[in-house]
Amino acid sequence: MPIETTPTFVTEPAADAQFVAVPFGRDLAPPADLPLPVDALLAHYEAKGEPGEVVEVPVALGSGIRRVLLYGVGGGSAADLRKAGASVARKVKGGARVWIRVPETADAAALAEGALLASYTFRIGAVRTPPDIVFVGGDEEALRRGETVARATALARDLVNTPSSIKSPAWLADQARQVAASAGLGFREDTALDGFGGIRAVGQGSAYPPRLVELTYAPEGATRHVVLVGKGITFDTGGLSLKPEEGMKTMKTDMAGGAAVIAVMGALATAGVPVRVTGLVACAENAFSGSAQRPGDVITQYGGRTVEVLNTDAEGRLVLADALAYADAELAPDVLIDIATLTGAAKIALGLRLGALYATDEPLAAALLAAGEATGDRLWRMPLIDDYRADLDSDIADLANVDRRMSGSAGSVAAALFLREFTGGRPWAHLDVAGPARSTADDGEITKGGTGFGVRLLLGYLASLS
Ligand code: BES
Ligand code: MN
Ligand code: ZN
Fold this sequence. Notes:
The protein is α/β, with parallel strands linked by helices. The protein contains 13 helices and 19 strands. Its cofactor is Mn(2+).
């Protein structure tokens, strides 16, 4: 159920509009033509125009009532406007039509994005009627840009929120196929997985076989090539290294990186991204069964390196390693970026709002950090500490998938160091989004459940390239 609201864009509200939202802020006085003692009202509610503040007042409209929402926009930054849009949307009950007046000089894209993302819901069963949002004034092109980003983010949320009883690897690949068809992308899926020992080993315990999905976008005249790799574990039991119940119950989220890649790919053309982009999603279910891989098994990753699987719950790095090595060997990327709910350690380090960024290339790191600040999908740079690389040595294979002493320290760094082995020295960034991929509550434009983290970030980054 992606965003079901279809926003419309007008220059003036209808004369009989019953629900009108009007901005005010630190540098923006509310319009003088409201039939209200606005100053007294705002003083009464101690409203200062901060983003998130909404003061509702009823006004006579003929023999009926018009509700006016005075909404704060703060200093008018993109973050302020996302929050402002979200606060207005949250005041609207399903089915109601709200007319949101767009502040004149504001970043209309951010306002639209916030309003649309906050009105996202995911339901299986009784459907909620979405609000009907009309933007009044503002740059229509910018508003549509915001809508594009919001719709892509909502698609990623839908994919994450879908239960794993539905969401098999084949289902996820099929969603990618549909996105490709409607966005004019190339689509390929590999189910034979010859040479992809990591994806096969992780998927071998499941009744639902694994696959590698490849989506391609090649705008005319593009020279640079970015490859995005997403972790698409449709459910992570931990495998034979079984997770406890508490850690397992949210593991339908473990394909959030793959969901972000699919959603970003689907929006590239509309967003006018000027570079070539390939999206790879390594889809598998990490199941617990008699055919599951065992702790101590040795697998051969794409390209021939062997890995001793000491912990079957460190499965994400095994599927990503194959995809990264494949990208390096076959796709000649100028930039490689992977996104994955990879470690609980990243979640502990940075919490639920920030993604962990690892990078082997300074300009790439700087561009991603900047895109994160601009779009709201914020990142924090983490270190690739060479001294820890030896912890991943194996007694019998080229590498172990976890520290064989099981020290458990710096788990997110260790996972990143493991992945780096498969990137062929190319400019590479790794986003560990185990924390921010899922939210425990509605907050601003974020909704409870899957957040679509990474979609806004990657679209912002890719749109900034030339
Ligand atoms: N999918 C999990 C990581 C995860 C944890 C994502 C919490 C979201 C929330 C990953 O496959 C995993 O199980 N990682 C292990 C690695 C460990 C065995 C080295 C972890 O973090 O415990
Ligand atoms: Mn796991
Ligand atoms: Zn996992």
